[in-house]
Amino acid sequence: MSNLNNRKSSRSFNRRQFLKSSSGVALFIGVSGLLPTVVSCRDQKRVEEQFQKHEVTAWVQISEDGQITIYNPAAEMGQGSMTALPIIFAEEMDADWSKVNVEFSPQEAEIYGGEGWAPGTKLMFTVGSRTTNSYYSTLRRAGAQARYVLLSSAAAHWNVPIEELITIEGNVVHEASNQKIEYGQLVRFLTMPESIPDFNEGGLKDPKDFRLIGSIIPRTEIPEKVNGSAQFAIDIRLPEMIYGVLERGNLHGAKPTLQNEEEILAMDGVLKLVPFDYGIGIVATTLEGALSAKKALKIEWSDAQASGFNSQEIYASYEDILAEDKTGDVRNEIGDFNKASSSATKTYEADFKNDYVYHAQMEPLNAIVQVSEDLKKAEVWVGSQQGSDTKLGIPSLLGIGHEDVTVHLQYLGGGFGRRSMSDFVVECGTLAKEMAPRPVKLLWTREDDVTYGCYRPLTLQRLKACTDSQGNLTGFSHVVVGDGGHLVAGGARNDHYQITNQWLEWRSASHGVRLKHWRAVGHGPNKFAIEAMLDEIAYEQGQDPIALRRKLMTNQSPRALATLEKAAEMADWDAFLPENRAKGVAFVEHGSMGTGICEISVNRETGKIRVHKFWIALDAGVVVQPDNVKAQMEGGIIMGMSSVLSEQLTVVDGKIQQSNYHDYKLLRMQDVPDSIETEILPSAEHPEGVGETATPMVAGAIANAFLRLTGKRLRHIPFTPERVLEVLNT
């Protein structure tokens, strides 16, 4: 595997090459503190010894010319982690950002894992809008420790008390003697202090003194993405690399029986056929040859659990599940909803539905795996959102240790939850094991991913609400029917609304269709149902939707209320609108809190809804990159609009009916809003995620605007023109 070890990244050089080509130092700063070593890059023997011992523990490297390399532990899929996380470290280190380079860290969760998951668990998992939230404190402490080493070394060099020293943008300064030294110049004098503060109880910067955090700083990877030099996994070519594809069919779980094996093996370039429980793998010398062989496969497929399942007919069965006299999985219970309902002046009830949705990430799923000839080591090149296993299932597949697998993380061309799975990596590893030691690149075509992907679940939600004689909301019941547990039941709590009696329940239904987290997971359908239900109550009462939410938030969540008031101000909520225009509002909490308001029109002849404007007020705690947060909001709104107005994946007799973008319709450029405006509310609270806050507010805001405009209710997403016309004509 020597060809792999000598390979140089087109994006930046690796750590060992950095050390060999510079006269810098590596500060071995891990999440548990600073290891007792500062390694000079001039001492090559000691460098090698230290890297053999501590190769995965360095957060930062400094060279004598002042260049600083900071390691990013998270996936970069367009959300800006390659800049946001290093900024946090650099802020506390007081680094000169113009001299900072960023590289991916090794995939070693014990060292680089983020906090904020299960107690005592560290994961490298770029999902759930948790990246900045889980690394914020860790990277601040590590950056402060790096700064302390620099201060301590300067104090020893100048023979002055460390308390008399300060740092200013990449320099240590002793004002009393008018001395200043750049970090790079200090490299040759670096020494390890006897003890280093852990900075858990203080000693970090006051947020008012932040120089980098909260500033508009260009993202580090954007120039490469603009000029085409950015490297994604799909770009990688290795010596002697061969190609793999799988035929999986479109009936999930069906088992294949190949009818023409000899014919396929005789095709030009085909090297091997590898059977899977659910498909047939092909390895060939070229991708074209593999795809040609795939088209020529003659397969007899078995039945599966999904056989006979029809997604558009299943809602009647879900209604039967709701009618059953039994209780499902209770997810939240406050007060006594039944008691509140029995004494209510008025009760409201409505069913809300959503169809399956596909991830539609831009870069097709792909990976490269090379297994050593003795099957004892492996290397992986992949764009992944990582996971509970940072080595992505390869150690278990090969029966080897985690330390024997090296993962080279690449940029991702979109994830949205799909690349938090490692199924495609394990498939590639299975093929590579058969072809060792040649590297194998596996590619999923778009058709593969549409027909055998993993989707946001289909659900039916029954909501009931009750009010007293003054119209106050006294009870709220939410029962979700669908497959996937948290995938369908998540995001259905009402923690920011003051409702005395609440009931949240999930009732299971399974059809054998592959499911996975999709941007914002259960929040999309559930927040849609909750926010639409609130507007239906307000409409029936002749009450303003903003006023209703204001009443529910005032004593419950001042921060949520602040986003509501700011959004109403931004959108000029009470302003006169032209005929055939209306505004709708929705509040969402997904880590951060946000209120969104949209302005729509409806073509009553075609049934097409047009979103003209969208306003968002966001409270995300401390915001590391404000400009990037606004970009996240814009992307989330557009993706939400696509899923709400266009995207629909259907199943007939267990088989996925769509295959590519000609029949799985995405939002087009001409349909995006004229403007999307985001206001970030100032906050000193711990940072919260923003990548999944905007998407779930879209359906509720559009449905609520539609209700104000037409007096009609949209309760089944997507709001296709056909469904809109059906509602308008009833």
Mean pLDDT: 92
Percent of residues in beta strands: 15-25%
Give the distance, in angstroms, between the N- and C-terminal Cα atoms.
Answer: 68 Å
Largest sheet: 7 strands, mixed
Tell me the number of helical segments per DSSP (H or I, 4 or more residues long).
22
Find the CATH superfamily of the largest domain.
Aldehyde oxidase/xanthine dehydrogenase, molybdopterin binding domain
Low-confidence stretches: 1-23, 29-37, 50-57
Number of domains: 3
Helix content: 25-40%
Secondary structure category: alpha+beta
* CATH topology category name of the largest domain: Aldehyde Oxidoreductase, domain 4
Oligomer: single chain
Text of the CATH class of the largest domain = Alpha Beta
CATH architecture of the largest domain: 2-Layer Sandwich
Rounded radius of gyration (Å): 28 Å
Shape: globular
